[in-house]
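Researcher: Re-running this chain for the archive, since the previous output was lost when a drive failed. Same request as before.
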Amino acid sequence: MRGLCPGINNVVRGLVLELTRGYGVEHIVGFRYGYAGLVPGLGPEPIILTPDLVGDIHHEGGTTLGTSRGAQDPETMVATLERFGIGILFVVGGDGTLRGAIKLVAEIERRGLPMGVVAIPKTIDNDIHFIDRSFGFETAFSASVDVIRGAHVEARGAANGVGVVKLMGRHSGFIACQAAIASTDVDAVLIPEVPLHLEGPSGLFEFLEKRLRRNAHAVIVVAEGAGQELCAQAPDSVTDPSGNARLGDIGYVLKSRIVDYFSKQRVDVTLKYIDPSYHIRSVPALPTDSVYCWNMARNAVHAAMAGNTEILIGRWHGRFVHVPLPLATRFRKQVDTTGDLWMSVIESTGQPVSWEPAAPT
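Model: Regenerated C-alpha cells:
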C-alpha cells in the first residue's frame, strides 16, 4: 500500500473476516508498511491478523497496517512470503502497487511456488481502467464538498474574494469534477486532461475577471496534476521513491499568478488557498464506501480461493469482475473531455470547454 485512502481498514477487516468465517483460515499475516514489510530489516515484523484485532478498525481513518513508497526487490519479497508459508497474497494499492504485484507473480512463477496474488485497487483518484470506481473515491469527493463550501464562504466574505481549492488527481480529474458538481459553488474546474492557459481572451484570467465583475467572488477547484507546465520543477527532485514524477504546487502557482495579474489591473483581490488533501485521505469511509469495501474484500477472497492469480477485483457495470493485472495497468483512466462528466462540469460552472486560445479564422 502506498498512501492513505478512505476505506483501507474496511478492506483489511473484510479480508480477515471472510477468510476466517467463510473459509476457516486460521493463520493470516499482515505485512506492515506495504512492500517494505516484505524486506527483512527494512520494515517492522508482520503481525497476526485475527477477527478480534480487526473488529473495530473500520471506524478509524488511515490504515492499521501502514503504507510506504518505493520499489523493493521481488526476489527478496517472495523469499519472505515463502518463509512465512504464505499461500495467497492480497495486495491493496494503486498503479505502482499493482505493477509491483505483477513482478511478484513473475518471481513466484519462476520459483514454481503454489502462491496466488490477488489485488484490490486502491487509488483515491479513481484512475484504474475496467472498473466503475475504486474504493474511497466517493468518500473523497464527498469530503471535498465541505472544503469547497468553506472556500465559498471565505470568498463571499470579501470584496473580490477568490477561493482556490487544490484536490487530489495526479493524472485524472475525477475528484475535482465530481466535487464541483456536488457542491454547486464552483466557478472553474482545472484538471490534468485540459491544458491550462492563463492569458488571452480564452484564458483563466479573463474568465475570472468577468466572474468577479458579476458576483464579486469566485471559487476555483484545481486537481493537483493540472497546469504542470506552469510549475517550475527542481532538477534534483524529478521523481519520488516510487518513481512517480514530483508535481509542482499548481495551487501556489495559481495563487501568486492571480494576485499578480489583478495587481497589474489595479484590482484588489483577497485570495485564500486551501489544500485539504491529507485531511481528506485520512477520513473514515462513508457508509456507501464501507459497503463497497466489504464486497470487494469478500469477492477478492472468493477469487483467490477459486485459484485465480495476477488479477484485481473490481465492479464493472454493476457486476464484480476479475481484471488481469497487466490489462489494468496498461494505461490510466482519465476524464473524457467530450463525455458527459466534463459536459456536466461545463454546464454547472459556465466555464469554457477549453482554455485553449481560439484558432484564427
